[in-house]
Design brief:
It contains 20 helices and 18 strands. The chain is of the alpha+beta class. The chain has a domain of about 220 residues. Keywords: Membrane, Transmembrane, Transmembrane helix.
Length: about 500
């Protein structure tokens, strides 16, 4: 199938009806009504077809004879202000916030029952509620646990289950961070309550327990503050330094808190640690599993060889050994413990001998890759799954990306013939180099991709027009978007308004 540019999109005349030409390239027919879902072509670019020429040049496909046929592109109606606010609210109140609120409210209800005396169990086992929440927060951010969840969902529910169910599964997997944040906040609340109980009965607790309890409370508070969106997105190094290293220190103080707390005899006011007594407590096992899940990704950290290609001042392409399944992201660093950055992985498949990362040159870390290209780099061999990993759930889909977002998008289209790539950028081949262009030539050609060149094709397109036509003509079930914050918001709003299921970029990892 070959989708190309729309006249209305290229010229930005979204409010007018345009006459569109197309290339007579057949598409696969679906099981649905052929009158609505099967056509003899996709619509093409504007009358002079600059993007069509570019797509054919990259893929080596000979241009088909151009045939004209009238087709009226519906003039989009501008949504009313109230409608626009409602769309934005729905996008803001996403699954992340729903899971966060659900988790926090559940814990608040439990705490209120405890404070009222209706439920007495948490008063004797407050530490278990503290550590249980913190453990859940750690697990939801663990690479191994996440990969396992994605594997289960992709294996059991792919394609045959109702679309709404698959969309719901994708949304929950993408927004597991809501449970992470909710449990961390709730654990902090239970810890404050626990410290309150300790301070009103100081004779029942060892002084060191009071001290480590305060240290743990402060550590968790610092981790929560460092993870606030503004800090995380604008001051990455501050977020990483405090969230990771203060978190590790908090875990260490938690062990001291648990062991001393369970070993203290208030009758003799002395420490009498016994292994049998300590391991019999819930708090010990919570702390143990917290430690295991914190350490799991770090035991897979390796210094690996890397080849650096710099096709342009804007982009660095890193080449690593071994192939990867689609939908994974890698964390890399110049050091073993410090300043890890996440990038989407491009690979032809698990049997390939290599995979690539596309890094936009924007900050100190990526600028360092240009100024001082490394021969080796640190990475976690255990990769974490992104929302693209759920692409196998869907029969057909559209992968939209802008600029360096191709790093997170391309693998899905390389490894599945059911996904169509819509990539908006500038001088694709010159900017991103022969490696990325070669993969597109080899696997996609002009049949499964549209490369919109903002310089050759008259600037920024009407992206929603392109998405709508691609979605309808490709008979897609879902759209995945990787773009910057502004582009992501605009496309997500447009898809929401058009009733197109879409998942956009997150900035919470």
């Amino acid at each position: 199938m070959s989708l190309q540019n729309v006249d209305a999109a290229e010229k930005g005349l979204a409010g007018r009806q345009q006459r569109v030409s197309f290339l007579p390239i057949p598409i696969a027919r679906s099981n649905s009504d052929s009158s609505t879902n099967s056509f003899d072509s996709f619509y093409t670019a504007a009358t002079h077809l600059p993007s069509a020429r570019n797509s054919r040049r990259m893929s080596g496909v000979r241009p088909a004879k151009r045939v004209s046929r009238k087709f009226q592109v519906p003039a989009p109606k501008a949504p009313a202000p109230n409608s626009r606010r409602w769309i934005r609210f729905q996008l803001w109140f996403d699954t992340y916030r729903k899971l966060y609120i659900l988790t926090v409210v559940f814990n608040i209800i439990a705490l209120l029952f405890t404070l009222s005396g209706t439920w007495t169990y948490p008063q004797q086992h407050t530490g278990a509620f503290v550590l249980g929440n913190i453990l859940a927060a750690i697990v939801c951010r663990n690479e191994l646990f996440g990969r396992l969840l994605y594997l289960i969902v992709n294996t059991l529910f792919a394609k045959w289950t109702p679309l709404k169910f698959r969309l719901a599964c994708t949304s929950v997997l993408q927004h597991l961070g809501g449970i992470h944040s909710g449990c961390a906040t709730s654990g902090f609340g239970w810890l404050v309550y626990n410290m309150f109980l300790i301070f009103i009965n100081p004779k029942q607790h060892y002084e060191a327990v009071l001290a480590t309890g305060i240290v743990t409370t402060v550590a968790i508070a610092v981790c929560i503050i460092a993870a606030l969106p503004w800090v995380r997105n604008t001051h990455h190094n501050i977020f990483e330094r405090h969230h990771r290293f203060v978190g590790w220190f908090g875990l260490l103080s938690t062990w001291v808190f648990v062991i001393l707390g369970e070993s203290y005899d208030p009758d003799t006011q002395s420490i009498r640690p016994t292994v049998s007594k300590v391991i019999a407590q819930q708090e010990f096992w919570f702390a143990l599993f917290m430690t295991v899940f914190v350490l799991t990704p770090w035991v897979t950290v390796r210094k690996v060889p890397v080849e650096v290609d710099i096709p342009s001042p804007k982009v660095v392409v890193l080449r690593f050994g071994r192939g990867m399944q689609q939908g994974l992201l890698a964390r890399i660093s110049r050091t073993a413990l410090w300043e890890y950055h996440a990038f989407g992985i491009i690979s032809e498949g698990k049997d390939s001998n290599e995979h690539f990362l596309v890094c936009g040159v924007q900050g100190d870390f990526t600028q360092g890759l240009v100024n001082n290209p490394p021969t080796h780099i640190w990475t976690r061999e255990l990769k974490f799954a992104g929302v693209s990993n759920t692409s196998t759930l869907f029969k057909r889909g559209i992968r939209v990306c802008t600029g360096t977002g191709i790093g997170a998008a391309l693998s899905t289209c390389l490894q599945s013939p059911d996904w169509y790539l819509l990539w908006i950028g500038s001088n694709h081949e010159k900017t991103f180099g022969p490696i990325i262009s070669g993969l597109i030539h080899k696997h996609l050609g002009s049949e499964r991709c549209l490369l919109w060149d903002s310089k050759e094709d008259g600037g920024r397109p009407d992206v929603m027009q392109l998405i709508k036509i691609a979605y309808n003509r490709w008979n897609a079930e879902v759209v995945f978007i990787t773009s910057n914050m502004q582009g992501n918001q605009e496309m997500m709003e447009g898809c929401k308004e058009a009733g197109i299921p879409a998942f956009g970029t997150l900035w919470d990892f």
